[in-house]
Structure formats: C-alpha cells, structure tokens
Amino acid sequence: MFPGFNTNGLAHHTLRDSIFLLAEIGYAGIAVTLDHDLLERCGTEFFWRTEPKQIRGWIEEAGLRESVVETGARFLLDPRRKHSPNLLDPDPEKRRLRRAYYFRAVELAETLGSPCISLWSGAADPAENASTETLFSRLGEELRILTDHAGERNVRIAFEPEPGMFVETVRQFEELLEFAPSELCLTLDVGHLFCQFEPIADSIFRHSERLVNLHFEDSVRGRHVHLFPGEGEMDFTELFDALRAVSYAHGVYFELSRSSPTGPETAEKAFAFWQNAVHSPQLPGAIP
Questions:
Q1: Among candidates 31, 36, 109, which has minimal Cα distance to 70?
Q2: Is the pLDDT of residue 280 over 80?
Q3: Pairing label, strands 39-42, 29-33
Q4: Cα–Cα distance, 67 to 223 (Å, whole number)
Q5: pLDDT band at 277 (very low <50, low <70, confident <90, very high)
C-alpha cells in the first residue's frame, strides 16, 4: 500500500499543479475527481477541457505510481441538484446522462492506466416510491452496462457505499451483489464504515478480493464527516493491520474534501501523519 490524495481536497488548484504538488510532498498516488475543471457538459454531451493524454503526461513526469478516477462531481450534471441524476433515476434518459459521464471517466482511466473508476448509487427518488428490489435491479443493470464497457478497456468499476444514498453500507453492497455483475469491485471509505458502526477489519477481510480503492479520513460515530486523522474518534491500528494482512497493494487516498482553502498545508500534514503512523516501527500495525 502507499499514500495518495484526492483532488477534491485541492479544488482551488489546477490539476497540473495538484499533481506536481503531491509528488513533491512525497505521495505515490492521486485520486483525480472528474469535475467541471476537466470536463465540460453541453446538454447531454461531454467535452474535455484538458485532454487525458496531457494528464497522463503530467502524472508520468511527476513520477506518481498510481492514479484512480473519482466521480464525485456534485453539480456537473445538474446545476441545481447535487449528484443528480444518478443510476437510480426513473427516467431512462437521465440515467443515460449519468452513464455517459461514467463512460468519460472510463476513458480517462484507460488513458491514465488507472485500475478503476469509483462511483456510488446515488439516492432514490422518493416521488417514485419504488420497491427495494426494483431499485437493486435497476442499479444492477446499469452496473452491468458499465462493467462491460469498462472491462473492454481494462478498467474496473469500484462501487462505494455512501451514507445517505440508496446503498450506504457494506451490508447493502452485499445485497447489491445479488443483482450486479460478478466483476464489480469495491471502494471502501473507512470513515463511512466507522460512522455507521460497521466493522472495518471484517469488511476488509470479507471483500479483500474486490477491494481496489480505499478512502481515508477520521470520523465520529453516527455522523458523516470527513475529519483530519486525529480529529475524530478512530483508532487506525486495526485498519492498517487488516490492510497488511490481506496484502492490500493499492493506494490509501486521503479524502479531505473540505480542505481546499488550506490544501497544500493539509496535504503536507496528511503525508506527515502517514509517515509517522504507518511507517514508524514503534507503532502497532506499522507497515514496513
């Protein structure tokens, strides 16, 4: 495993500056959030503001080891409603718009050589009043289309359970697997697990073969917040011991999406935390 940082915590920086800043600090990975700075939406079409080949050139020049593509753009598809439309929308045309955005994410991941794109379910439309089985079936079919498209390009779809969405827990992710393609992978956010009282180590052990992406931050019980490590209630020893036990080989990406006003300082502090807490042989669970 190795440290990475999500660009949603550097929202006031250009992607090029973010890449070289993180490399200078010492990060080995970058999670590129595909938002309006990189992609322009015109109606139902998407156009690159920055060509993926250019981004790949910057990453290679900076010497980063891995990139992943994150799809948490809040208002790119709808300027009035956050994270809408989504794959659960009852309108097929709106689902098609979300799918087109994900296709662009796959295109970026393929060009960058990223192992995966990360996505979530979104929330169900309460006005539809659809059954749980209907929503799982609809989501599973959309994920089948995406995994087929991505698989042809050597990219995996990594699904993230997200508090407040239709699939918000690992338990619900396991229900989704009954409807989804077998190739579906997993993004785990350890803060999401902690705030929803889900077992971190057990989740890693149960899904180690699907786990290709990990979001890292501190949190508190019962509240969905992304806090800097040490500002919440988590004990990270169990997490790092579990990741070491399953030989997790991908990035551990700090996801501090509220840190952009102090982005460079926060990124430096996070990397120092990683060095002290993860590599120090004096601490339990240290990664050699």
A1: 31
A2: no
A3: unpaired
A4: 29
A5: confident
